[in-house]
Amino acid sequence: MLDEIIINQLQAIVGKDNVLIGSVNLTTYSYDATADVPHAMPEVIVMPTSTAQVRKVVQLAAWKSIAIYPRGAGTNLSGGTIPLDHGIVLSLQKMDQIVEIDAENLTATVQPGVVIQDLNNAIAPFGLMYPPDPGTVTTATMGGSVAENSGGLRGLKYGVTKHYVMGMEVVLANGNSVRFGGKTVKNVTAYDFSSLFVGSEGTLGIIVEITCKLLPEPKFHKAMLAAFNVMEDAGKTVSDIIKAQVIPATLEIMDNMTIRTVEDFAHVGLPTDAAALLLIEVDGMAELVVAQEADAVIRIVEENHGSLHIANSDEERDNLWSARRAALPALASLNNTVVLEDATVPRSRVTDMLLALAEIGRKYRLVLGTFGHAGDGNLHPTILADKYNADEMSRVHQAVEEIFATALKLGGTLSGEHGIGIAKMRFLGNEIGDSGLELMQTIKNALDPTHMLNPGKLIPREEKTHVSR
Amino acid sequence: MLDEIIINQLQAIVGKDNVLIGSVNLTTYSYDATADVPHAMPEVIVMPTSTAQVRKVVQLAAWKSIAIYPRGAGTNLSGGTIPLDHGIVLSLQKMDQIVEIDAENLTATVQPGVVIQDLNNAIAPFGLMYPPDPGTVTTATMGGSVAENSGGLRGLKYGVTKHYVMGMEVVLANGNSVRFGGKTVKNVTAYDFSSLFVGSEGTLGIIVEITCKLLPEPKFHKAMLAAFNVMEDAGKTVSDIIKAQVIPATLEIMDNMTIRTVEDFAHVGLPTDAAALLLIEVDGMAELVVAQEADAVIRIVEENHGSLHIANSDEERDNLWSARRAALPALASLNNTVVLEDATVPRSRVTDMLLALAEIGRKYRLVLGTFGHAGDGNLHPTILADKYNADEMSRVHQAVEEIFATALKLGGTLSGEHGIGIAKMRFLGNEIGDSGLELMQTIKNALDPTHMLNPGKLIPREEKTHVSR
């Protein structure tokens, strides 16, 4: 528990109502959406409402050597917000203003606490959209998703969060606030700090304002569901679509286990005997082009022995996407622990990865379903387990290790969109090597020499703690 | 002059033929394409042919405290390659292999010495293109353009170099080589080091391999030339096109002075009495959409009192682009010093900037022409001067200062695509402030504590040396 004097000082900075203590509050902020990582109690939750307040909190914490854990909505999936060293949870949720919508320059400037969907609602009247689309778009905040470099369902065509961040203001560990980037498409003044802070998981500074790029909302779209009896046919369909140079907005896969679970949960009429489903949506500004792309997809699905269902109304389209979005909650309803991974491979290796995942499930006798963003190689193998069954959890951990090793062997990465956080920290060296780990430490030590910001995340506390291959 | 022992050691590392000395060689590498910056003689030019050689050269230089100046083709426009502290010019031009073209994953992996156009030629048979398109595409190297984060003519629709770099290998000042990123569209493993090194101007490490994203080459394009009697009409056409949510591949402007100079130089039949020309090209995969976009552009040009010339053949299209590409050489032929700036503003402020630039030319009694990438706000005000006329050069420097101040006042940036180098270093603090400068120093000191890599560039040698506003 923090000294009462410090609590008083925090109250003086942000106001009494914006400082939360008491065990109910502390427990609420002791965990996030991640399964199978330790929980930890913060000593206080501080909810600043301005950049000036953030700076003062950081200065106080630096002076008193208290850890700061920045937090948005806590939807992250790698344990990134858990206050391992206790200290201060700095919730940015009250900094929730949309500062500016600049339709002429296709930019928006927002505070970190703005919920992604709220930004999209605000820009819709201008015919604009903010493309990054994590599954948690209705609750996740802009600050959290920038800090985690969120991906989501539209990554294949539209890219990820980092492709939409043009500038930001950050409060550093030394209490300085710095602005970089801006509204120009081209900017080579100084290092590309915006990109360094995107995906830095709160370990280098606290993001207090974001200028992001917007796009015109596509006027036409066509959603389709393709069912396959053989997994390889689904995988080949994915690569054939890309090879045909058709780039769908979304190209999602569900394996049989996910299909059955979603159908049990949501009763949307999915074909429960299919080995795999693809959910495909093409979109664009020209009706004809969208129709041509849809035709190309239909032809490729049929060539690969898939059976098609085409959404002929907005309602049918919404149904398809509800089914996809139900995948995680449906799986989560089956057991008390859902280990959701996001090992990612180059898109040409998606079939290999899908087959390897099924084999890993069998090998370790686990309930393992896979869904995810097949189009960009970002799959979500999901293991359901009972955390009170030590033997099963040990097999889960072995399986996860093998999943990571397989992704790397196929030229992929440990994490496509969930981040490293606590969950994947010990595997980091397997991907980036000792000199990569050293470079991580160098950057961290330079910007946050006392490791005050989100300590225990992303960067191993000791060098070279990675698991040998 | 370096000790003979060191020359011998360098020869042992890279081979005798790859170590150049002698005054002709040293003079050749004492300058680059930038006007009005100091030249400086290197002590030796070293041309490694492998990453292992680069590491050994760096280790030797670190041990002997010799500065290293990495260099591609020397086409940069901010003095970024000039060996201010003498030492070693490390030319990467002999590391010129295309390591892999992976058409299935839409990526290429190249060594830094590959010329951009050579990459484009190699991928053309696959129907692919590498979109970043600096004016010097036929000579500039991939390494140089990544280190400078080159922009170019297609920035509006396709973005700049940083949007196409997916991964790289870098040799650090400590002699380590590190790989990061890769072929996956999504990758949140570790900090986004690729983005940190893109545009770092050789001050943080030496890029020895690059994995870049490719795009399908658009199958259709339509190029047009629009002439305007009034500059404001040209400016309004640019913003009306963007407002109509038509995103041309290129949207270039030339002012009257540039038009007349190009016409004198290249005799392509430009209307020399026009106040401004726009060169506009729309492109895409669907003929109908390209035609529709062209129609929209034509309507907007006519609404703004422009007169149109539409390229009806590939030859006519090539002629238009030759005229645009002739702008710089044409202007350069007029006097002995061509100060080419790239102050950049949000696209909604392009007209304001064009008018301000004309006024600055008048105010300082200078020959100032402007051309550039109107669509992305990246203008190239170009001042022609006689470097032997001290009074005129002093007015040039005042004008440049006012150009930068105006760009910042309009919400823009010092440099859209040419970089900071030597040329804009003293203005850097005006944009990023003291805490931004301090952050630059922090990163530089962390990665290159002895300032061995490209010293004297991008980061002011002493803190807070920026010009007050």
UniProtKB/TrEMBL annotation, chains A, B:
The keyword Translocase does not apply. Its cofactor is FAD. Keywords: FAD, Flavoprotein, Oxidoreductase. SUPFAM superfamilies: FAD-binding/transporter-associated domain-like, FAD-linked oxidases, C-terminal domain. PANTHER family: GLYCOLATE OXIDASE SUBUNIT GLCD (PTHR42934). Belongs to the FAD-binding oxidoreductase/transferase type 4 family. This is Glycolate oxidase. It comes from Sodalis ligni.
